[in-house]
Amino acid sequence: MEPLFKQLQELRRHAEALVKIEVCSELKEEPLGPGDHSIENLQKGSCSHCGAVPWLETARRNAGRWEDRPLVVLSLFDGIGGVWASLCNLGIPFIGYSCEIYPQAIEVTKRRYGSVSHLGDVRKLKRTDIKETVVDLVVGGFPCQDLSCLGRRDGLHGTRSRLFFEMLRVMQVFSPTWFLAENVTSMSWVDRDEITRHLGITPLEIDSVCLTPCRRQRIYWSNIPYPRTCPRVKESEGTSIQSVLDPKVEVALATKNTCVLTKNITEIGRHSMEQVFNLQENKIRYLDVTEVELMMGYPPQYTNLDFEGYAAKSRTRLKTRCRLLGNTFSVPVISYLLSPLLNRIIRERTRCYYLPKSIRQQDCAIMASGEIWAMYNCEQRPNWYAKIVSRSGGRFDVSECHWEPGMKRGLRRPLHIEVIFLQLTKPYELGEPDLWNTIRGTGLFVLTDKVDAQSTWVAFSHRVTTVVEHDHNCYFIYPGKAEVWSIYDCGTEARYLVYVAESTVDKEKAVKGAPGKEGFSARCRLLQRKTQPDLYTLLDKEVVYDDLGVFSFRAPYHFLNERDTLKIELATKDRERGAKGDGPSRKRSRESDTSDYEELLDTELEDTGGDSDI
Question: Residues of the signal sequence (predicted)?
Fold first, then answer.
């Protein structure tokens, strides 16, 4: 294997390079591992350890030579430039702008991608800072400290994660053609639902272990079409730990590594990394920071700089490198998500997105007064419906915290949500064996006069978006496009799931309260359950429904790894990752019914979601 400095010399002579990459002259002259992770190969998209040769090269070959102008790309919370490495992997030329405030991260990006312009703090970004009239792509992995299971769990409106609303502001100012947002999967469903609402895009969850040697569960929102099929390279040798080692000298004692965090690749936390056995010395060691770079899709020594002020402090420099890697993207995953842009037809057929009318953080809280929300009934079906009257405490204390003597500083008031329940109108109740836990979840509903209070998120499922309001107290609820619904077959008493591809209803007829005469029709695709109970494959087989009564309840979902695999939430176990400060669950109380019934939720489960650096 040629030394690294020779490959860098070849890179400088590579006249066909699409993007200028400035190479740090301080990289050590050491041989590369069998994966050959030179900066030249990163530019050419042939980083073999992450499986790039089979799937990235195929994508680039199928797309043909890039003949359009370079993309104008704005990377928010840019870190060490994972976006630029991903674009180079794909061979997409770009004019880059970076927003980052961490000095060492800025230094790495400047040394590796000298053509990228640095704009500093995202909160100070203005339209005049970018001279181009069109911004093609905005990418942002906004801070996760208030969202992660390892953090404070203050939610999206916490002091650090609220920078998400700065991303909304930037998107409003620059109106990019495409966007890509990223964060941790361990956030509560409340935060995920709120982000989804503001961006108007169903997210996709992916663990980098599918494409690389290390685990990194993240969730993404993008109006770039999600790839239909994720490369099947998870079990290949090119995505194992061994791919970053010399097999003649060392053997990995595990096939995959845990999630890379700041704290588990330093000397203190190195026991969290996997072990390597040296065949020549008969000794065990842990994976080091350079091997972590390789596993995450960067060239070796990518972060090994003499950071300003750290020249004589090698230990401090190591901790800095660990921190940088713990907060960066997985390059192969970002390459995978951006790969559809190689297709000119996709680039020319933009998918629209709609931002909130107000992007101020104070105006963007979830559960606004007057919204209709679905709640879980006693049978774990989310077809109780309630209108939000008011909410306070918890995440809604966004402007200032409510302090009392003896309270810890910054502690928020308990969550309190007041709702008024809806019930089916008489014509739609006919045929229901249990009016308390109805089978159908569609039809004409009317407001009751009973106000109830909830002190937890757990009983809530989702915001109802396909609803026709009539006279301020009647609501017609029906299945909407891109929703997943449970279908009830009264003949077999069986249920199955469908994805609504398209639906129509005559709104004037719908509010008249005549079942079967609403002018309803829905074209749906069947869903096939996988071995894992909450995973379903979206089939091409379609069924048309004209009977509104077969739709039992809507199930929240997001995509997993690819756009034809859905992860569907069918019970309150998926609601139990509440925001910090949630109290015990409160249920809907039966009016004039004193019989006991099973609690909707008995216990709070410990959050064991994906990892995040704090």
Answer: none
The model's pLDDT over 102-133, given as tens digits with 9 standing for 90+, comes to 999 999 999 999 999 999 999 999 999 999 99
The secondary structure of 370-410 as a DSSP string is T-EEEE--TTS---EEEEEEEEESGGG--S-----TTPPTT
Q: Report the sign of the C-alpha dihedral through residues 435, 437, 441, 445, in that order.
A: positive
CA distance 415 to 423: 25
3-state secondary structure of 612: coil
Indicate the pTM of the whole model: 0.84
- Identify the bridge partners of residue 222 per DSSP, sorted by sequence position: 180
CA-nearest of 248, 302, 238, 251 to 48 is 238
The contacts of residue 572 (CB under 8 Å, 6+ apart) are 376, 380, 458, 459, 600, 601
CA dihedral 248, 251, 255, 256 (to 10 degrees): -100
Name the residues annotated as catalytic: 144
Q: Which residues contact 171 (CB under 8 A, 6 or more apart)?
A: 138, 179, 355
For residues 424 and 447, give the distance between their C-alpha atoms in angstroms, rounded to a whole number: 9
The one-letter code for the residue type at 571 is: A
| 470 burial via Cβ count (<10 Å: 0-12, 13-18, 19+) | middle
Q: What tokens does 407 get?
A: 């309270």
List the structure tokens of 163.
Answer: 């920078």
H or E element in which residue 89 lies: helix 82-90
Whether the pLDDT of residue 405 is over 70: the answer is no
How far is 385 from 372, CA to CA, in rounded Å? 7
pLDDT band at residue 578 using 50, 70 and 90 as cut-offs: very low
Residues 121/129, Cβ–Cβ less than 8 Å: no
**Tell me, what DSSP letter sits at residue 512?**
T
